[in-house]
Amino acid sequence: MFTAVEMAPRDPILGLNEQFAADTNPNKVNLGVGVYYDDNGKLPLLQCVQAAEQNMMKAPTARGYLPIDGIVAYDNAVKGLVFGADSEPVQSGRVATIQAIGGTGGLKVGADFLKKLNPKAKVLISDPSWENHRALFTNAGFEVESYPYYDAARRGVNFDGMLAALNAAPAGTVVVLHACCHNPTGYDITPEQWDQVVAAVKAKGLVPFLDMAYQGFGYGLKEDGAAVAKFVDAGLTFFVSTSFSKSFSLYGERVGALSVLCENKEEAGRVLSQLKIAIRTNYSNPPIHGGAVVAAVLGNPELRALWEKELGEMRVRIKAMRQKLVDGLKAAGVKEDMSFITTQIGMFSYSGLSKDQMVRLRNEFGVYGTDTGRMCVAALNSKNIDYVCASIAKVI
Ligand code: PMP
Predict the structure, then answer these.
(1) Is 306 among the domain residues?
(2) Best mutation site among 180, 183, 187, 210 for ligand 1, i.e. most ligand atoms within 8 A of its Cβ?
(3) In the annotation, is 38 catalytic?
(4) Residue 211 is among the residues annotated as catalytic for this protein
(5) pTM strictly above 0.90
(6) Quick one: 74 and 177 in the same domain?
(7) CATH value at residue 388
């Protein structure tokens, strides 16, 4: 039955992890996968998460099925984070939110719903984009194309190219936008550029799908949600996927969400009913634990304040590492101006290194980034930074 089955290529990022695990270099550093590690190189277990779990252990509960759309308190907390608890969309009840299996699950439920709604629509993703965007929307049945984004020569965003592509897209085209902390480049567009994107999306009748996997990692929770607010202010209806994998350091719990902003409450009810069908026919209903932890933290003022503090510490540490990288590369003899690294935001840096240089970094120094030159600066720490700088200096 399986003789004709071909071997699929390895996932480019998870494949790197396997290679890293097998590497015997004692100095090896994994900057490949998008995971935040603390200054000791450890995956953090946030105190707010531990406190919520301890509270939950005091009154253990049986594990029935959750509703198809997940924990009500969780969905409400997501709405508050994405739109603002007192915002008009939340107050008027016109947001349909479902608990999803990670940000990936939110994207997939949205993609399945969109495919039924508008089967002929094309999907536009940024060039480059998170590795899984293309595959996920393709697997949902869409033809996926890209809009220009990264400008290697100018070390920034090719905004004119991006805008031109949006303006040229047929009405109904789904446009996937990184709400903040663009993965993989680390370059975000400015607030003024967002205004122009919103205006183009509105004028051309495009369908915005904001992917918010790093809310809180850029400038702050509210600041990072500013793009969402701009779409709301423009009177548009749109999709937002949320991931708590990074912001709660709950990668393996698979906690995410999808929110769809509708015209009114009645419409949100109809949309929610369709999202539930997408969930029911994929995996029936979400798991309990991760969503319960996030709901408990966000619903308790003290734990929420603790979370915001811990999230802020992660954000500040990443920025400090960016600066250390720039300084360290200079000290290691790199003549090129590398200060662009501090203008990037979020967990990643497009280093501008070539595939050959990235391969050398990996093979000769055990420093792992992707072939595209992407490095996860959130995995740098005070112990590995000098070695990483010296290694990069040797391949440049
Ligand atoms: N979107 C983007 C842009 C991401 O970087 C990621 C995570 N790497 C996701 C979605 C998926 O998040 P999750 O791991 O929660 O499924």
Answers:
(1) no
(2) 183
(3) no
(4) yes
(5) yes
(6) yes
(7) 3.90.1150.10
